[in-house]
Amino acid sequence: MSDTTEPRPVETLSREEAENELAFLAAELARHDALYHGKDAPEISDADYDALKRRNDAIEERFPDLIRADSPSKKVGSAPSDTFAPVTHARPMLSLGNVFSDEDVQDFVASVYRFLGQLPDNSIAFTAEPKIDGLSMSLRYENGRLVTGATRGDGTTGENVTANIRTISQIPDRLPPGVPAVVEVRGEVYMAKSDFLALNKLMEEEGKPTYVNPRNTASGSLRQLDPKVTASRKLRFFAYAWGEMSEMPARTQYDMVMVLKDWGFPVNPLMARLSSIDDLLAHYRDIGLKRGDLDYDIDGVVYKVDRLDLQERLGFRSRSPRWATAHKFPAEQAFTKLTGIDIQVGRTGALTPVARLEPVTVGGVVVTNATLHNEDYIKGIGNSGEPIREGRDIRVGDTVIVQRAGDVIPQVVDIVEEKRPADAEAYRFPTTCPVCGSHAVREVNEKTGKVDAVRRCTGGFVCRAQAVEHLKHFVSRNAFDIEGFGSKQVDFFFENEDPSLQIRTAPDIFTLEKRQAQSELTKLENIDGFGKVSVAKLYAAINDRRSIALHRFIYALGIRHAGETTAKLLARSYGAYEAFAAAMKEAGSLSGDAWNDLNNIDGIGEVVARSIVEFYKEPRNLEVLERLLAEVTPEAAEMPTTTDSPVAGKTVVFTGSLEKFTRDEAKARAESLGAKVAGSVSKKTDILVAGPGAGSKLTKAQELGIQTMDEDEWLALIGG
């Protein structure tokens, strides 16, 4: 065995390995969301959570057709709790993408130049500053007075913690004269290491439980119902960004932060403005060396394009800006014993092996389980049949190397062969589902003839695990989000043998109250854990979801590969559920206008399209849908209402060699104005923008009588 074990780069993963990792990551992130947002009891740091997301994003970027229905890639934070009043952010608070190596930083910088159509000549400046491991906060000032302090929440809606924010002495209650009428300052609330140690010492002296780390303590302190408790915790603040501004006092990122400093906000003294990749990396390493001496936790360095006009041109992806990224600090490893291998069955039937470990501390966090990817990975076989780990397999009883950070967190990366027990036997991956006993098979890709690395249960809804996981997905936060109806309730109702209480499919949720009212057997309110008040609240929460946004409805169906982003694209493209369902059924032949229209939606490839169409060809799915639609009404999607935009709601196709802007920039600008960008011309195309060399798309557009224009005409139409 080599002295060091290199993490497996995303580019070396096969489709099968990638799909299995995505299944693990979706489940693991959902678990951490519940611990962090629901119980304020996280098992991993915020930095490691972000690293989990980064791995998920990297895999999805390479394999976009593998994006799961329960993918965490389009989520920002978590929905705000009911403890505090909701606050809708004037501008979304998005998260950052992550990079982990020098090569990743080079790719990020190159992507900026490439998007803007410029050669990488060091002409674009970037800011670089420590990434504070704290709690994102938005502070809104009107006419110089602090009016609202809100957490990030899900990026769109946060929690109103204004009373608690006012207790932080570093946050000014009033700004100096002459500031813009509306100022929204964004930054990080954190607890200094010295204050954290002092607090824990006090807790020990008082015989009370101590806190885990400064970041989680700061988060819990800020969410106290009593502002006096928050005031006693000595929270601090760094400003580094802004949201809505009635006018901009500077034209660069760096100068804007200096303005915030002049207004009385603390800003990080290690922030620098740099132009070359070498300088960015040197600053990253310098901050890394200082990390241990800082009185606050950091988990990396954030790079941002300095010029604000370039930031605007670069725009945003679904949940992160193209003009910024976080360069995270390296992974950490530890040794422990593998005590067992469990098989988890997911909503799509995937059998995922999970390593059970003797508890081991890696980077200050206790790890008790880790991914083993798939059966080939356990055997020591790579994506193309090549040996990995020099061909060493993984067995129960082995001493293993566990890694956390940007690769898979946590992940078994290798074994210590010389410590293998003499009686250790090669692991035999099950060929039947451990839940329902149905055959578990590795499908063959029709196009490539390659065997899928993921073994799947063939039981479908006969399999309890798949049925239960489907219900849990249906009621999850980004689907129907029924308050008081979570995983615990799904398990209870699914296993119940009383017909008036049993819930096996989604429509059963909405008939529960009626069945209970007609039942002369057990009443839900008389069962331990419920009660009359809680049952009334549950029924009210269920009834509140009888009308639901179309994209949430589509996402809740749990169609394989159809995640949140796909659901939103479908809702926006078809407008109403009836139109969507009819089109999917018409597209069942995998040819014709309906099929072409589906594939033409930018962001939906053939694999995703086929999965959606196949869902609507399955009689059982249609039967469940019919019963569900008898209880629930999907609301028509709101069409784009971009102010004064002449292209809002129109479908635009770009073709030819664009000279005035890059293809990515053209697409981003059109979408920001409310247009839909398609990849090919159809009868539903409204505008074709043709650059030099336009060919068949231009010919087809002319034949169909579609409005065509060159780049100058397009710019004149949208106002430059």
The overall average pLDDT, rounded, is: 87
Indicate the CATH topology of the largest domain.
D-amino Acid Aminotransferase, Chain A, domain 1
Tell me what the CATH architecture of the largest domain is.
Answer: 2-Layer Sandwich
Largest sheet: 5 strands, mixed
Write down the Rg: 27 Å
Low-pLDDT regions:
1-7
Range of helix content: 25-40%
Structural class: alpha+beta
> How many distinct helices?
24
User: How many distinct beta strands?
Assistant: 24
Q: So, the CATH homologous superfamily of the largest domain?
A: DNA ligase/mRNA capping enzyme
Shape: globular
Number of domains: 5
Strand content: 15-25%
CATH class of the largest domain: Alpha Beta
Strand order, biggest sheet?
2-11-10-3-9
Distance between the termini: 60 Å
In short:
This protein is of the alpha+beta class and 720 residues long. It is 35% helix and 20% strand.
Structure report:
- The structure is a single chain.
- This protein has 24 helices and 24 strands.
- With 720 residues, it is of the alpha+beta class.
- The protein folds into 5 domains: 220 residues, no CATH class; 243 residues, D-amino Acid Aminotransferase, Chain A, domain 1, CATH 3.30.470; 63 residues, no CATH class; 88 residues, 5' to 3' exonuclease, C-terminal subdomain (DNA polymerase, domain 1); 68 residues, BRCT domain (Rossmann fold, 3-Layer(aba) Sandwich).
- The strands form 7 sheets. Strands 2-11-10-3-9 form a 5-stranded mixed β-sheet, sandwiched between helices. Strands 14-13-12-15-16 form a 5-stranded antiparallel β-sheet, covered by helices on one side. It has a 4-stranded antiparallel β-sheet with strand order 5-4-7-8.
- Helix 22 links the parallel strand 21 and strand 22.
- Helix 1 packs antiparallel against helix 2 and helix 16 crosses helix 17.
- The chain is globular and about 70 Å long.
